Amino acid sequence: MNYKVLRICSGYKKVCRVTAFIFMLLVYSNTFGQDLRRKILLGELETIRNYPSFNSQDTLYINKIIDLAGEYRYHNLDSLYSLSDESLRLSQSSSYINGEIYSYINIGGFYSDKGHIDQAISYFSKAHDLATKYKELRLKVKSLNVLAKEYSFQGNYALALKGYLEAIGISEKQDYKNYLSIINENIAELYLSQEDYNHAMVFFKKVKAINEEIGNPIYIAETMSSMADAYADMNELEYAMFNINSAITIFEQEKILEWLAYAYEVKGKIYLKKGKNTWALYWYKQSELLHEKIEDDRGKIALLNGMSEAHLNTNNDSIAQVYSLEAFELSKKIGYRTGIKDCTYQLFKIHKNKKEYKKSLWYHEIFQVTSESLTKKGNEIALDMLKTKTEYNRQKQQLILENEKALAKQNIVIYLIAIILIIFVVITFIIQRNQRIQKKLNAELLSKKQDLEEKQAYLNELNQTKNKLFSIIGHDLRGPIGAFQGLLKLFKEGEMTKDEFLNFVPKLKVDIDTISFTLNNLLSWGQTQMNGSVTKPSVTNLITIVDENIALLSEIAQSKSITLQNRIEPNCQIWSDPNQIDIIIRNLLSNALKFTPNNGQIVIGAIQKLKTCEIYVKDNGMGMSEETMGKIFQKDANHTTYGTNDEKGTGLGLSLCKEMVEKNKGKIWVHSALGKGSTFYFSIPRVREEYKKSA
Q1: What predicted TM-score, i.e. pTM, was given to this entire model?
Q2: How far apart are CA 288 and CA 18, in angstroms?
Q3: In angstroms, rounded to a whole number, what is the distance separating the alpha carbons of residues 4 and 18?
Q4: For 29-52, what is each residue's pLDDT tens digit?
């Protein structure tokens, strides 16, 4: 893994090998953690795309793309750009303003990391303008922060400080503690760039207090890393080492590669300041390994310069030259003048050691020009920063005074408005009180009207029930009873012999059974219509009820040579009213016998499911049309069809069955076709433990 470091660590060879191995495990663990986050986001995107109602303009989908783009920053800039471009296009087509702002910020981040500062500022400005226009304050603060950061890269520290101060003003008003931490730390970095360590530390300590209030360990670690870097520049190396070790522990736990790479580089810098070049190179190498997995050119330039200096201190001039040249090319690529200054100074010393004076002089000239430019620019920057801060404070105080004057003027207006409001409230109270009284009277009238309508409907229903009962009694009971009376009269008056009378006995028995069955149905139906039938569920053994009804109707079945098959299992127990289930079974079997031709077959069975028992009565009789099936269960229908032997019913049976099934918390339905028979189904709850306890 780290052969150069292992060769350098001659005295600590065994320790270095073990430490290097542990670090390799850590790198792969960290990489796996970040890969896992990206894989989770990719999986969520794929899941959303597979939704039947997937719409690419859905804000949830766009937000996932934005989150995934953010995960690729410092790891794959091309993916960051392509995903951000896609989220921008979708956000614009769906008028999703927040998505558009986030996309502009991500694209700006891409150009920033590429060293294209002008393009980065352009996209950050678009995000800021949109956030300002639509009053998205949190996003405005975010865009101000990244825009100011880019101005600092450009060297325009006055604009940077102005942006930071505006963002702090909004964050303090809205209590955005996270942004207060980030922005104050960025201001500290501005002062560090001017080597104004006292002001930088003031802001770092302010950030530290905010971070402790937030309680986010990552924020704390980031600030400690920056403070360690500042302490190293101030040669307060013990403070620097304490802060960087604490930060590294947190970054390793949280698996944040880009910050861990920076922390390792700072730790190498501390050892370099201590004159411990071997350990400096060791920690620089750990940072270099992490930089292979991230894309952070600015951070890498500082690392390369540090490694060059450490190798130069150990007389490895050739290796030092390789690192300085790489830093030089990278600095030119992204226009990083501080990096150019540091690496050209290293190259000046390297070529001087090699007695290559021409090259040494060339690099020294570049170093001098860059240093003078930075020094001059630094003085201008410091002055601009002071002017900007002073102007900001002046404007802030002026705004406070103007607000106080405006408030004083408004107080008079407020008093007048308060008096008007009191009068308005009194008038409103009187009007509302009258409205409440009126509403109460209207509600009482409406309630009485509804009561009358309900009573009228109830009386109409009772009247319909009475008419139906009289109709059935008049047509379906009077006929068989009248026939029976006529036969008895003929026999009594001697116009019919005993043998002739006995020949009518089977027919009379059928008529009497029909009358009895009809009366039972009439009584049950009448009770349900007049709310007199109460369902009393209990543990009911289904097979017992079925056997009793088969025995009761066996004579009718024998008269038509119909086979009755009982396929109910002995252990089939249901939670129902046994009397009502008895009526349902009897009606369904009676119907099946009525419409099944001679020599037919009727099967009754049950399918036991998890919570219900599904009971069916199947015949191979006449069957029904779709129109008939639509009528048979209607409550007010009196649909009567003659059977295969001209049997006639009341038309009450199936509507009665439906009512009783529903009273037992079940459902009833039918499957049928003309000429192919019918199968009636109804479901009833099965017996469960809680039913047994209640029973």
Answers
A1: 0.49
A2: 18
A3: 15
A4: 444 455 777 888 888 888 888 888
